[in-house]
Amino acid sequence: MAAFKSIALIPAAGMGKRMGASINKQYLQLDGMPIVARTIAVFEASPLIESIYLVIPADEIPYCREHVVEACGFRKIAAIIPGGKERQNSVMNGLNAMREHVSDDDVILIHDGVRPLITEDLLRESIRTARLHDGALVAVPVKDTIKTVHGGVVSGTPPRETLWQAQTPQSFRFGKIFRAHLSAETDGFSGTDDASLVERTGGAVHIIRGDYRNIKITTPEDLILAEAFLSIMERERTQC
Questions:
Q1: Residue 173 forms beta bridges with which residues?
Q2: How far is the CA of 7 from the CAs of 76, 108, 127, 203, in angstroms?
Q3: Residues 113, 93, 81, 129, CA torsion sign
Q4: pLDDT of 23-37, one tens digit each?
Q5: Does domain 6-133+169-203+213-239 have CATH number 3.90.550.10?
Q6: CA 141 → CA 99, 120, 151, distances in Å?
Q7: Could you read off the pLDDT of 138-166 as tens digits, one per residue?
Q8: Backbone torsions φ then ψ of 213, nearest 5 degrees
């Protein structure tokens, strides 16, 4: 295959109301660093990633630039882009911002800004799979029995072995994900994640088995759990 680039697109434009904090959740401290900085740091340190596009609420861009990008000395940040009304709009803003700087075959890894415990191994497998298929979705099998419910009454119990919990990164060649987002925007379609937009256009998105520690920090309980996982992962690295 011809040479290609791997580029991270990190949407971090959510308001984080469920966290109940006085600042947006991406700036809360996780072991001495803002959560979003810890997320960026994984991609910054990876030799697989050429550049990073960060999507932030427009009014937070100066704060993020000073207190995250400059404070941490990140050098791979290609642009800080204002977010949109919804996450899907924010991702499209990011794709539009990088459009003139990438080729259709470059791999774009779309990763939640508040999911800081992603590993290098998952980045590598995501890139490999996205090169071979229409997309790569990091996910884990569900642990609990899931019920479908209508009007407060259980209407079904889908077989657990068919159910996976989607994580990020969700990775695609640029041409594939840009066209899927453009189609959704044109048709006024709102998807639950980026993979759903590719699925809608007939693309086959392949699963990569993820890590239960790759959590999205949404609630105060998640932050406590992330601190525990981070401590364990750092101990594992020092023992290698």
A1: 107
A2: 10, 5, 10, 21
A3: positive
A4: 688 999 999 999 999
A5: yes
A6: 34, 20, 27
A7: 999 999 999 999 999 999 999 999 999 99
A8: -85, -10
